[in-house]
Specification:
Elements lengths: L17 H14 L6 H15 L4 H15 L4 E7 L6 E8 L3 H8 L4 E2 L4 H8 L3 E3 L12 H7 L3 E9 L2 E10 L7 H60 L3 H23 L5 H16 L3 E4 L14 H19 L8 E8 L3 E8 L25 H12 L3 E6 L5 E8 L6
Parallel strand pairs: 7-8
Antiparallel strand pairs: 1-2, 1-6, 2-3, 4-5, 5-6, 8-9, 9-11, 10-11
Helix pairs in contact: 1-2, 1-7, 2-3, 2-7, 3-7, 7-8, 7-9, 7-10, 8-9, 9-10, 10-11
Amino acid sequence: MSGEKGPSLMSMDGGLDLEQRARADLLREGASAPRRSTGDLEAVLAVAEAIAAADDMDATLRVVADAAARLLRCQAAAVLLLDEYRPDTLRLVAAFGLSERYVAALTGAKRIEVNRSPSGVALTSGRPVVVRDAHTEPLIAPWRELADAEGYRAMVSVPLVVGDTALGVLNLYHWSPAAISHERLRLLVALAGHAAIAIHNARLRQTAERQVDALRTMVVSLRAQTHEFSNRLHAIGGLLALGEVDEARRFTSELQAAFDERTAAITDRIHEPVLAGYLVAQLSAADAAGVDLTVDPGTSLADRPTGMDATTLVTLVGNLLRNAVEAVDGLPERRRRVRFKATQTSRRTRVVVSDRGEGFGPEPDAWFTEGASSKPGNLGVGLALVKTIVDAVQGRIVLARDGRGWTTVTVDLPGAGKRR
């Protein structure tokens, strides 16, 4: 960020927990302004509640947009965050009172570029930007046609900042030319500061949940692999106890050759070591479960998708494979089959998981919902997390069922990126 920062009422030091401090600051601020309306205080308290329960990013963002609109008595509000994968672009993530057409424009091709709009200037300068009349403000020029269609004439854009990190902006819209008082702008800046803490906390929790899920996936696979190795060691020990040294040697050689072949089949095609290690372990886990899991010979993955860390990639692939394996569990042997394929170019990474389960039923969208736990096909609770990851990188998920009984989930992600 460049330029001077505007007024900030955030306090990051002291012994209180960050959430507790933010909540206490907001409550003190509401109590110190007896002339402020009940609606203002309710808006401030709504954000305090969001900070205290910021484990759901979507809910937090909706509360922030709604509370800010009520605070300034605006007709509409929006939260725009920096795109993790296009750092020069702001992406609309929550809106209140805006039309579907306007929201679609901000989430589609007409994304906001930093430094080329009121929102971009607010973000880079660290100070609020007030537009009293959209008809005369040069920064609105590229957006004037869209603004006229939406019907707003004035707006204010306030940066969302935690420490030295800019997260995005909070925008408020008026349908008529309007000025904003210094007192109300000061309150909005304070609210934006605490809203930024809520967003930051929600992101931290999301990251932690993904890491825990990835570790859980790895542990399950490694546990199955450990059980398999234990059985083989017992077999070797039994042969040695019987004096069958040559047979024990042959058995050991066969195991080593099979392991080397399986490992090479993965590592020659998957150059991301964490994912390769997970897939080797998952093959053993599938064997132990009586499932024929195969990696397509056409698989080729040179690196992680752009902007995606190893934990997130393993979480995505792990949930897809886990759902597929569970989908065929208990079925006749000829149907206990799962296929995995990954391909990559500079523009796109594609992950494809197929199984011979019962399919995803007449309402596949239901399996994208968090908490869905029944598994008529290869979709379940894990797919909600997969969807969250895919949405974050502006990817897509395609579900299909062919005439031969294969259910396929295809996930398209950004292309190969730089390792970090």
